[in-house]
Amino acid sequence: MAATTHSASPLFLRETEIRRGLELLYFGNAHITRSIDRGLAKQGLGRAHHRALYFIARKPDMPVSDLLALLAITKQSLGRVLNELMERGLVEARAGDRDRRQRLLRLTPAGVELEASLYEALREKLSLAYSRAGQGAVTGFWAVLEGLIPDDEIARVEALRG
């Protein structure tokens, strides 16, 4: 059974309304990410691995520097994640065409399969929530999430759309 949805108050900038939004973001994110935790754990992987797999799947041949910028983590952290994914045969890197020092990332067939199974679990949850909320609510939800992204990062997010 779905939670009761309340309309935002006309005073939606009040502390109680903002706290409700933060709580819904927190719990919604916690529940959707938990839906893939078991699949990741079976592979001995965590959420950082999933984020890398997801973005590499979205943009095959993504330079490591672009992934680093998208994930906003340290080089050392990304290095650990990528090394584990490569050792498990989920990600491969090749030299860039113009700059041989550049490392371009793509999923292996096993990586594609794992990422697709994780995506399917997330898609099911999000599709159900979208269906319950309706098109107008989804558009509003996207607008709020886009509003949380700094202006100088919007282009990077939009570039994922292809």
Tell me about this structure.
With 162 residues, this protein is mostly helical. It contains seven helices and three strands, in the order H-H-E-H-H-E-E-H-H-H. It has helices at 15-42, 47-58, 64-71, 75-87, 109-133, 135-148, 151-159, and strands at 62-63, 91-95, 103-107. A three-stranded antiparallel sheet has the order 1-3-2. The protein is globular and about 55 Å long. The two termini are 36 Å apart. The model has no long low-confidence stretch (mean pLDDT 90).
For the largest sheet, list the strands in their spatial order: 1-3-2
**Overall SS class:** mainly alpha
What coarse outline follows from CA principal-axis ratios? Answer: globular
Tell me roughly what share of residues is in helical segments.
Answer: 55-70%
Beta-strand residue fraction: 5-15%
End-to-end span in angstroms? 36 Å
Number of helical stretches of at least 4 residues: 7
Topology:
Blueprint: H1 15-42, H2 47-58, E1 62-63, H3 64-71, H4 75-87, E2 91-95, E3 103-107, H5 109-133, H6 135-148, H7 151-159
What features would you highlight for this structure?
mainly alpha; 162 residues; 3 strands; 7 helices
